[in-house]
Amino acid sequence: MKRSFLSLALLLFVVHSALAQKVNFEEFDLDNGLHVILHQDNTAPVVITSVMYDVGGKDGDRERTGFAHFFEHLLFEGSENIGRGEFMKIIPANGGTFNANTSQDRTYYYEIFPSNKIELGLWLESERMLHPVIDQVGVDTQNEVVKEERRQSYDNRPYGQILSAIGENLFKVHPYKDENIGKMEHLDAATLEEFNTYFNTYYVPNNAVLIVAGDIDKEKTKTLVKQYFSEVKRGPDVVRDFPKEEPINETIKAQKYDKNIQIPAIIAAYRLPGQATRDAYILDMISTYLSDGKSSILYKKLIDEQKQALGVQAVNLGQVDYNIFALFALPLGDVPLDTLLSEMDEEISKMQNELISERDYQKLLNQFENRFVNSNSSVAGIASSLATYYLLYGDVNLINTQLDLYRSITREEIKDVAKKYLSPNQRVEIQYLPKKDEQ
Prior knowledge:
The chain contains 16 helices and eleven strands. The chain is of the alpha+beta class. It has two domains: about 25-230, 2-Layer Sandwich (Cytochrome Bc1 Complex, Chain A, domain 1), CATH 3.30.830.10; about 250-435, 2-Layer Sandwich (Cytochrome Bc1 Complex, Chain A, domain 1). A hairpin with a 4-residue loop joins strand 4 (about 95-100) and strand 5 (about 105-115). Helix 13 packs antiparallel against helix 15. The chain is globular, with a radius of gyration of 23 Å. The N and C termini lie far apart (about 65 Å). It comes from Gaetbulibacter aquiaggeris. Keywords: Hydrolase, Metalloprotease, Protease, Signal, Zinc. This is Pitrilysin family protein.
């Protein structure tokens, strides 16, 4: 009976996967090096125009951290043809929405409009790239905005320093050691010349990808793209040569104090190969197996059955140069942090020494299929995926083939990768504490 159930489940999985619609796209380059990807979907009268720049928190002078995140805000200030503050008024006035975000590896801007406003979306992004106004008024205004964001999202938010605690202990020489939002003293000390130099270095067409997706006519869109972006001058090629981290061969123990919390936490973080490697995909499956949902291994064990934790999570944070795999748990009552860590280690040890069950393996495949389908269920999701796969993975067609990659991973590989990377002597263990004891 068990074998029949698994066979039926596998059949349903294959059939459902076959129904996942292929995403068609077309790519071309302008003479200035701007890479353009078009995706036509005329099922709804909506279009997204987006630009992803190959610049993030890891880029730039380490005495001027946070520039990429700062520019996420600054480049909404206006341009030679858009008045100060008008950028964010024009979009909703024309029925659109917009946003931007920055990671350690890239910065992403997008607008979603009714499809008859495609030209407006392209004009706005070309203005941002071609001649934004970077002046002292804008810098001072956004400096205050970023400081307030830091206060709300990092300094005064419970557990808001977890990523910085991991980064500063897991990385010693690579710029991932620095917070993406940067240090405020670095932004305060920066000159207007430094901001302009940063823009001219990284916000150039040959360091970006433009996505236009949705209810478009591809030939007309090509004409519009060339009309609005061809005059942008090519910039210098960005050259990166980040220092390499030495392997961790002995457990590193650290403590971090947070004035905003009352319940401590335990974190175990591992520095792993970058997100485009096969091992990184396997580690995605491991983190999902451990803690994705209330039926996951760690949730059932520590929260439901043993009632030792208020929360537990395993995360595989994808980055270009190094991934971060982290275990996190909040104790229930007086349960020691070391106990939580031991219990999580016990489940990892099982993965290292025996294959996960066929049933759990099938569940994993179903979860990744759902993620894959959901990520391509909207024009905005497709645009983001196209940009990400091109810029950070070097393979746009992963939007169609990534699920096959996950499906090719075997239970034996899951066991081998857990054994290869997730041993206690390869990690940083961080006690995240409410406050330092008074002496």
